[in-house]
Task: inverse folding
């Protein structure tokens, strides 16, 4: 699948106010980089926090996990998060890169913008999904 087709598929699958807007994607076998935009009217910004909305850490990890399941052959059984670090808050109106790196039953995620790291961690899954014919 080409990057253009993959981007269209992800936009269709994750097209609601619960997801960042996906602007571009590049992928090889074990890594995917998605350019995302955090819209001001995103559902997860409501009430978190009234004076300065931010994307909560649990939302960032949820996005990374669900996108990883859509992009890589990993099982649905999520078991833990390792090495989780939040360094900068993610605000509405920001353009970021979400990098997902797959290895066996883990996916490392990283939200960044140029040299600025916002958050990173490693999602561990139970095992690979069975291959369907």
Result:
């Amino acid at each position: 699948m080409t990057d253009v087709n993959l981007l269209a598929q992800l936009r269709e699958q994750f097209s609601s106010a619960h997801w960042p807007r996906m602007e571009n994607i590049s992928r090889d076998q074990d890594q995917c980089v998605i350019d995302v935009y955090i819209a001001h009217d995103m559902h997860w910004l409501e009430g978190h926090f009234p004076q300065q909305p931010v994307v909560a850490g649990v939302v960032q990890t949820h996005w990374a996990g669900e996108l990883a399941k859509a992009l890589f052959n990993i099982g649905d059984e999520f078991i833990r998060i390792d090495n989780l670090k939040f360094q900068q808050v993610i605000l509405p109106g920001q353009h970021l890169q979400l990098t997902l790196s797959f290895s066996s039953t883990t996916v490392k995620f990283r939200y960044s913008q140029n040299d600025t790291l916002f958050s990173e961690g490693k999602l561990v899954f139970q095992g690979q999904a069975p291959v369907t014919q």
User: Anything to note?
Assistant: The two ends are 17 Å apart (CA to CA). The mean pLDDT is 90. The CA atoms of residues 39 and 130 lie 36 Å apart.
